[in-house]
């Protein structure tokens, strides 16, 4: 299968009521292992390279080109995604390398600045996932109370035109204990309010909280 755009994986998953798996890779062996698993399952997959991984390697080009080549040689559809990028120059480089999407993270800015920066990024023509508020646990700071407001999320998507939205629903990065609780009621409310796919973090140890009529994130 050829390397595909991220929308070609996420779009069909959303229409089928499914999630699309997206996994961060640091080394080429990680990309190869994720693709091997996807091939064994007969499922598409998204390879993610974060800005932190770029810092680890000292540059994007080597690991980025390697991930794109692994994706291009796969027997299932594979997209490559730049994850949690704060630098517009890095976004432009990723697009030039053949990445199928970017997650542009302007969540550290105030709402107005976030909207302006994200809209400018999206105007470059790339499939963009954005973030509103804090997804708990980034940079080692756990924020179990961090939640995305459905009304604000809907307004944000309308203002920026983004293709997907990362939301805070109780999950957390870098968990060391099994204490996160996924707020499925909020997931359902966001799914009803926001017209684009939702992304969230599912690291090991999250526990769903039962909720009537709850849905699930459609990415990651």
From TrEMBL:
Gene3D superfamilies: Aldolase class I. Its cofactor is Zn(2+). Pfam families: F_bP_aldolase. PANTHER family: D-TAGATOSE-1,6-BISPHOSPHATE ALDOLASE (PTHR30304), D-TAGATOSE-1,6-BISPHOSPHATE ALDOLASE SUBUNIT GATY-RELATED (PTHR30304:SF0). This is Fructose-bisphosphate aldolase. It comes from Streptomyces cuspidosporus.
């Amino acid at each position: 299968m050829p390397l595909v755009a991220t929308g070609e994986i996420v779009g069909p998953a959303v229409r089928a009521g499914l999630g699309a798996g997206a996994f961060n890779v640091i080394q080429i062996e990680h990309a190869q292992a994720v693709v091997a698993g996807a091939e064994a399952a007969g499922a598409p997959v998204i390879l993610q390279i974060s800005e932190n991984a770029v810092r680890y390697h000292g540059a994007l080009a080597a690991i980025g080109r390697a991930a794109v080549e692994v994706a291009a040689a796969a027997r299932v559809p594979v997209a490559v995604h730049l994850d949690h990028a704060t630098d517009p120059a890095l976004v432009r480089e990723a697009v030039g390398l053949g990445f199928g999407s970017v997650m542009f993270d302007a969540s550290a800015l105030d709402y107005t600045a976030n909207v302006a920066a994200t809209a400018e990024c999206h105007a470059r023509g790339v499939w963009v996932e954005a973030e509103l508020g804090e997804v708990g646990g980034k940079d080692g700071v756990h924020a179990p109370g961090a939640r995305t407001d459905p009304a604000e999320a809907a307004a944000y998507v309308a203002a920026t035109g983004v293709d997907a939205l990362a939301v805070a629903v109780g999950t957390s990065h870098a968990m060391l204990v099994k204490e996160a609780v996924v707020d499925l009621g909020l997931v359902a409310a966001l799914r009803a309010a926001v017209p684009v796919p939702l992304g969230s973090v599912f690291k090991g140890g999250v526990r769903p909280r039962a909720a009537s009529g709850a849905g699930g994130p459609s990415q990651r």
